[in-house]
Design brief:
alpha/beta; three-stranded mixed sheet; about 15% strand
Length: about 300
């Protein structure tokens, strides 16, 4: 849909060029500013254009940067490039998005494919078990073993509301587990496609805006099976996404090096002392965004 929207706007600009100047400009390119999960959608579009998910599993090819044909500057604001423990918390406990809003249960949020794509990678060791071993959050067997989210039998009351035509709890659980497996498999393919190191083509610049002044959950430990992860470490970030996640810093959970290691080639990085949702209201963000886009 992002591809269709951009092509629609490109056609409009081309038509206006013909009307006003008697010529057709090629190619029409845009600047795109994307926040949070939208930044992942934009990154996927830049790399793969309108090619959707590959259900066969792995991307056998390197990114073709089809979307770069239409984008000159990509500004990624608070992107959860390496995931967020807040996403895991929402999937395990549900979430209320405002003081007077409805509480969305784990069963409801568990049907949202996008949330799984923002789970931390196992290699970054954001969640470890009692023995210190990284937990693979994209492995459905882990969810079943720990009775998390859609795999939690206590969610049957919510599943009954979501699936009123299904008669028994066992049938509802089978449907829930199937959806869980599908969402985790899709998230794994999405992350693998985004994590391939690739140099952007000439004419495309990728800019980061991230927070680094809020203490943000960065590491959690599972003490007992069936229990909730306990946050044991916090790092600079925006309260939802750590600085390291926004940068997609591959030093996390691995060997340290003096310089950042990331599959994303950043043209610039701006760090703003603001939280995840308030970042775009910060004067520092506005001033620098206008400079990046206009000058």
């Amino acid at each position: 849909r992002l591809h269709e929207f951009i092509e629609e706007k490109a056609a409009y600009v081309e038509a206006q060029d013909l009307i006003r100047f008697g010529r057709k400009r090629e190619p029409v390119k845009f600047d795109v500013v994307a926040h949070s999960y939208g930044a992942l959608v934009l990154r996927y579009y830049l790399r793969y254009g309108d090619h959707g998910d590959d259900p066969t599993g792995q991307f056998a090819r390197s990114p073709g940067w089809e979307g770069a044909r239409r984008v000159e500057r990509a500004v990624l604001v608070a992107p959860p490039n390496a995931g967020s423990l807040k996403s895991l918390d929402s999937l395990l406990h549900g979430r209320r998005f405002g003081i007077f809003s409805y509480h969305y249960s784990p069963a409801i949020l568990g049907t949202f494919p996008s949330l799984y794509a923002t789970l931390p990678r196992a290699r970054h060791a954001a969640l470890v078990d009692a023995g210190g071993n990284p937990v693979d959050l994209l492995d459905p067997e882990e969810w079943i073993a720990y009775a998390w989210g859609l795999a939690d039998p206590r969610q049957d009351g919510e599943l009954r509301k979501l699936l009123p035509e299904v008669a028994t709890a066992s049938e509802r659980r089978a449907i829930a587990l199937r959806r869980l497996r599908e969402n985790l498999a899709l998230a794994k393919r999405t992350q693998e496609a985004l994590d391939i190191p690739a140099e952007p083509p000439p004419g495309l610049t990728i800019h980061l805006v991230a927070g680094d002044a809020e203490k943000t959950p960065s590491r959690a430990v599972l003490r007992v099976a069936g229990g909730s992860p306990r946050i044991v470490a916090r790092e600079p970030g925006d309260g939802t996404v750590t600085r390291a996640s926004a940068l997609m810093d591959e030093r996390e959970g691995g060997d340290w090096s003096r310089r950042i290691r990331s599959p994303i080639v950043w043209s610039s990085a701006l760090f703003v002392p603001a939280n995840h949702l308030g970042m775009t209201e910060a004067p520092t963000f506005t001033d620098n965004l206008l400079f990046t886009l206009l000058q």
